[in-house]
TrEMBL record:
<keyword id="KW-0732">Signal</keyword>
<feature type="site" description="Cleavage; by autolysis">
    <location>
        <begin position="233"/>
        <end position="234"/>
    </location>
</feature>
<feature type="signal peptide">
    <location>
        <begin position="1"/>
        <end position="38"/>
    </location>
</feature>
<dbReference type="InterPro" id="IPR000246">
    <property type="entry name" value="Peptidase_T2"/>
</dbReference>
<dbReference type="InterPro" id="IPR029055">
    <property type="entry name" value="Ntn_hydrolases_N"/>
</dbReference>
<dbReference type="GO" id="GO:0003948">
    <property type="term" value="F:N4-(beta-N-acetylglucosaminyl)-L-asparaginase activity"/>
</dbReference>
<dbReference type="GO" id="GO:0008798">
    <property type="term" value="F:beta-aspartyl-peptidase activity"/>
</dbReference>
<keyword id="KW-0645">Protease</keyword>
<dbReference type="Pfam" id="PF01112">
    <property type="entry name" value="Asparaginase_2"/>
</dbReference>
<comment type="subunit">
    <text>Heterotetramer of two alpha and two beta chains arranged as a dimer of alpha/beta heterodimers.</text>
</comment>
<dbReference type="GO" id="GO:0006508">
    <property type="term" value="P:proteolysis"/>
</dbReference>
<feature type="active site" description="Nucleophile">
    <location>
        <position position="234"/>
    </location>
</feature>
<dbReference type="GO" id="GO:0005737">
    <property type="term" value="C:cytoplasm"/>
</dbReference>
<feature type="binding site">
    <location>
        <begin position="262"/>
        <end position="265"/>
    </location>
    <ligand>
        <name>substrate</name>
    </ligand>
</feature>
<feature type="binding site">
    <location>
        <begin position="285"/>
        <end position="288"/>
    </location>
    <ligand>
        <name>substrate</name>
    </ligand>
</feature>
<keyword id="KW-0068">Autocatalytic cleavage</keyword>
<keyword id="KW-0378">Hydrolase</keyword>
Amino acid sequence: MKDLHSLLPPSMAATNLNSASIFLLTFALLFMVMGHEASNSGQYPVVVSTWPFLEAVRAAWRVVDNGFSAVDAVVDGCSACEELRCDGTVGPGGSPDENGETTIDALVMDGVTMEVGAVAAMRYIKDGIKAARLVMQYTEHTLLVGEQAAAFAISMGLPGPTNLSSSESMDKWTKWKENHCQPNFWKDVVPVDRCGPYHAKDFLGSSHGTCSKTTLMENIKSRSSHVGRHNHDTISMAVFDKMGNIAVGTSTNGATFKIPGRVGDGPIAGSSAYADDEVGACGATGDGDIMMRFLPCYQVVESMRLGMEPNLAAKDAISRIARKFPDFVGAVFAINKKGVHAGACHGWTFQYSVRSPEMDDVKVYTVVP
């Protein structure tokens, strides 16, 4: 290392320093040098997202590259996807439930403070991720739901109430009704007519049921037959800011033709997303009803905490689900504090997007089952 006096300003270099002062100045200068080297390592910022949601990743990158926080970037990135209605499964205007209504699930998590804000089955508000952030910022709660979540969001300044349906979602719903409301998410039931109301199969012998056992069996199908990217999807995003702080966020309008009131894994911390500033982050997409039973993103982060590399942590989390539900469809991405990332999937080919300092634009990675 250079002589201490050569590093000091001229006014200080000419000063007679005692040994204690020299020691303290040396320590301070070493700390400054080390801190400067760490902050310019080229490792951060980083943005990762499920699927080729390029504009969402670019929006998040613009925010974080300009020095804003990881939480700011996650909110802007997911908001971009909501506005673009990514794949018809994020934001308003998609994925109608059995009543033809679109509702929103969203989450934001600060990996530094471990604070979480989320909304679920939220009606009338199109800005899901912004509503989730308001829950985190202005309440001591983690999750608000339904019309009360909408009322809270409006009271905090978000626009609404708004009709979240679109001509596309209503056309999709009308065609589904014409197809005897198939496929759907009911099991072990019989409908009074072609679209319900439904009764438990124990009612088969009563006057409430008008369908045969054959009809009941025809209504039982593999979950994978109606779970896919374009009807059952989530944007899940992780961002490291320039300071290395991390946040995650999700947004979805849920499963197409879901039973009204259904909440998937999107607003569930540890399932759709999870972040810990000491370790890294994870994002998930797929059959949330199955995946939320395993908290795969919490599993991924905890595996990385124990020293597992991201690719192995991701594969382990997915394999735990597949052992119990071999027909499930889903995927995760994992990224550790070093910026090493990987993905794993089951039942479909998965893609995730990354933007980091050494890239000129977003890069899409493909993962096969």
